[in-house]
Design goal:
Layout (H helix, E strand, L loop, with lengths): L1 E5 L3 H13 L3 E5 L2 H10 L4 E5 L7 H10 L6 E5 L4 H9 L4 E4 L4 H19 L2 E4 L2 E4 L4 E4 L2 E3 L3 H12 L7 H8 L8 H15 L8 E4 L3 E4 L5
Helix pairs in contact: 2-3, 6-8
Length: about 220
């Protein structure tokens, strides 16, 4: 899942990005409200960790603009203000949760999982194609009932393919959806991950699900779907 962290305190921004990345998320980060809107207008995120006291546009302004544009991405607000009126203002503006500073990262992580789970449950948390199934609520991959162990990056790529089953996706689209914006990733890296996925997802089964479309990219499809 892809997360945007908008936090103007440099050390806090760095720590949040590093620890969320260690938790298996793909993380982009920025330092101003204006930058946050630029990111949100260009990229689809699964959640946003949004500080209220941002330069340029503050967190309330970003949240208001985000909701008025019709985006329902879950937002976890961060603030040094703990007064009830500020919490109410944030929730009324469309935030999914509110966390006051200082906080323990384990609490932020738990709250983030909760708002992501609610979003997933809202749209359905099971993706399937043929005998392949991903339960995003528990991050479990199975094929014909057999659990398949994947690395976080393999999981992200397979989920992207499965969400777009029967649709050819390019290497560039895969990179854009699972890597940080500031990472320079070659197409060879994606090819290498696809080879690893084929070994885990297809090798022990008669029907193959992951196909290479020469000159275009990859598609995940099944004769049964």
């Amino acid at each position: 899942m892809r997360i945007l962290v908008a936090e103007d305190e440099q050390n806090m921004n760095y720590v949040l990005k590093r620890r969320l990345t260690n938790d298996g998320y793909t993380v982009d980060s920025c330092f101003t409200g204006t930058e946050a809107m630029d990111y949100l207008n260009c990229t689809a995120y699964d959640a946003v960790v949004l500080d209220i006291m941002l330069p340029g546009k503050d967190g309330f302004e970003v949240l208001k603009e985000l909701r008025e544009s019709g985006q329902d991405v879950p937002v976890l607000l961060l603030s040094a203000k703990s007064e009830a009126k500020d919490i109410v203002k944030g929730l009324d503006a469309g935030a999914d949760d509110y966390l006051t500073k200082p906080f323990d990262f384990s609490e932020l992580s738990a709250r983030l999982r909760l708002i992501l789970r609610k979003k997933v449950e809202h749209r359905g948390n099971i993706y399937s194609c043929g005998g392949l199934q991903i339960d995003t609520a528990i991050r479990q991959v199975t094929r014909d009932g057999k659990i398949i162990r994947l690395s976080p990056r393999e999981y992200s790529i397979l989920l992207f393919l499965l969400r777009n089953k029967d649709i050819v996706v390019t290497r560039e689209q895969i990179v854009d959806n699972i890597y940080n914006i500031d990472q320079d990733i070659s197409s060879n890296v994606i090819d290498a991950y696809i080879r690893l996925l084929r070994k885990k997802v297809d090798r022990d089964f008669d029907e193959k699900l992951i196909y290479t479309i020469r000159g275009m990219g990859y598609v995940l499809k099944s004769e049964e779907s």
